[in-house]
């Protein structure tokens, strides 16, 4: 029987080829074919696998935009931390905003596995050379906006991001698993906040409705331009970076929101919303794509403010980065010196034992010091994936 072997992935399993994937004996067509086969078989592409340059740059573009959205997205909600109406609401909101910072870190980490540094990406964001989600260029005018962001913006984010957990690029997919778990909590807190308002006074109900009226259409724009204007979708779907088109996900989101709006007791600001029996979906009105394009060009209500705050926060944080780098350098130096001293001490003791009473040394004890632990790079940066281990064994 012919043994079943896994296809080469552009580098020898035993790492006897250079990490750029040009392993010995593998021609350009071989690595491309191996990559295509892995994508077709729904296997994960890992950082050290060969990948087409355009696959890499597409991922960097999308992951960078995503990471930037997470950290810029902290601003509109952080605006309400000091004015949260109770200690409970304040604690929840602070936790949520901190989660967004964490999401940014996971994503910048995933981008780093593709060979781009966080500094480089932040520089591009600050220079206006990379995008972040259009949604964060709208203002948070009332407390109810915090609820509407949770319900609609995080709801749209989950709809878009759950399929990204199956993205063909391993580190991005794994980051998305964690992010989606937290986004679910964010969505629930927004829904619960709005529910408290719609069950409150007349003024609170009006405030909730006003927030939903303002956030509904921008939330639909989060999914990106319509499919026939989406320049990247076809290729990204062929590579299984994206699993669904922008319009498919937008429709899914509308279908989820309509019954939720009813349960909340708010109306969605679209007179054309109608159940379409034939399609089995809700029909909805035309999106103002001109507004979307303007926001992307930098002309949204808060573009300037968001970028200005981000740049200022980055500049003001310079001393933190310097202090952290100095601390890390000091720690490394101390650790290295301590490490050398420890080993010297061990050697001296061993020598002494050998000299004095070799037979009494006893069985060797496993060294459990943390510095002997195997390299565990974050999120697949260096760690072999399960699929790769399987291939190596095959
Ligand atoms: N805003 O060919 P297309 C969060 C750009 S954070 C701005 O369809 P693609 C949260 C697009 O980049 C949520 N730009 O692109 C955080 C492209 O421009 P370039 C963020 C947009 O990539 C804190 C051009 O339009 N989520 O939830 O195939 C607090 C053509 O578009 C937008 C993600 O980033 C937009 N809305 O599809 C609370 C998800 N839409 O690059 C919540 C990951 C499109 O050629 N990203 N553009 O200059 C994706 O899934 C995809 O990138 C998109 C766009 C669906 C967004």
TrEMBL record:
Residues 340-357 have a biased composition (Basic and acidic residues). Residues 7-19, 363-394 have a biased composition (Low complexity). SUPFAM superfamilies: Ferritin-like. One of its GO terms (molecular function) is phenylacetyl-CoA 1,2-epoxidase activity. GO terms for biological process: phenylacetate catabolic process. GO terms for cellular component: cytosol. It holds the Pfam family PaaA_PaaC. Residues 1-28, 324-394 are annotated as: Disordered. It comes from the Bacteria. PANTHER family: 1,2-PHENYLACETYL-COA EPOXIDASE, SUBUNIT A, PHENYLACETIC ACID DEGRADATION PROTEIN PAA. This is Ring-1,2-phenylacetyl-CoA epoxidase subunit PaaA. It comes from Streptomyces qinglanensis.
């Amino acid at each position: 029987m012919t043994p079943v072997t896994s296809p080469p992935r552009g580098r020898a399993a035993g790492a006897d080829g250079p990490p750029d994937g040009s392993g010995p004996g593998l021609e350009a067509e071989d690595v491309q074919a191996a990559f295509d086969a892995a994508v077709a078989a729904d296997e994960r592409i890992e950082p050290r696998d060969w990948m087409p340059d355009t696959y890499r740059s597409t991922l960097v573009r999308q992951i960078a935009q995503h990471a930037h959205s997470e950290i810029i997205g902290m601003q509109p909600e952080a605006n309400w931390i000091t004015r949260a109406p109770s200690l409970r609401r304040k604690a929840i909101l602070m936790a949520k905003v901190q989660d967004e910072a964490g999401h940014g870190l996971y994503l910048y980490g995933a981008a780093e596995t593709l060979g781009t540094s966080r500094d480089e990406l932040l520089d591009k964001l600050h220079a206006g050379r990379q995008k972040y989600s259009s949604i964060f260029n709208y203002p948070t005018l009332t407390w109810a906006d915090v609820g509407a962001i949770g319900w609609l913006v995080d709801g749209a984010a989950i709809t878009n991001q759950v399929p990204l957990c199956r993205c063909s690029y391993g580190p991005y997919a794994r980051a998305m698993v964690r992010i989606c778990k937290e986004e679910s909590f964010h969505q629930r807190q927004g829904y619960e906040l709005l529910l408290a308002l719609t069950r409150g006074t007349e003024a609170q109900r009006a405030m909730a409705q006003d927030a939903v009226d303002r956030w509904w259409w921008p939330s639909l724009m989060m999914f990106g331009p319509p499919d026939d204007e989406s320049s990247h979708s076809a290729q990204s779907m062929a590579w299984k970076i994206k699993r669904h088109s922008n319009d498919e996900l937008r429709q899914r989101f509308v279908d989820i929101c309509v019954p939720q709006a009813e349960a909340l007791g708010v109306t969605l600001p679209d007179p054309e919303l109608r159940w379409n029996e034939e399609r089995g979906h809700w029909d909805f009105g035309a999106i103002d794509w001109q507004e979307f394009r303007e926001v992307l060009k930098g002309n949204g209500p808060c573009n300037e403010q968001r970028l200005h705050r981000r740049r200022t926060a980055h500049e003001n944080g310079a001393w933190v980065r310097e202090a952290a780098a100095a601390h890390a350098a000091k720690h490394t130096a101390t650790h290295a010196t301590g490490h050398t001293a420890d080993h010297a001490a061990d050697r001296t003791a061993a020598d002494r034992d050998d000299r004095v009473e070799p037979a009494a040394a006893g069985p060797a004890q496993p060294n459990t010091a943390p510095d002997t632990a195997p390299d565990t790079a974050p999120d697949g940066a260096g760690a072999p994936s399960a699929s790769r281990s399987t291939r190596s064994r095959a």
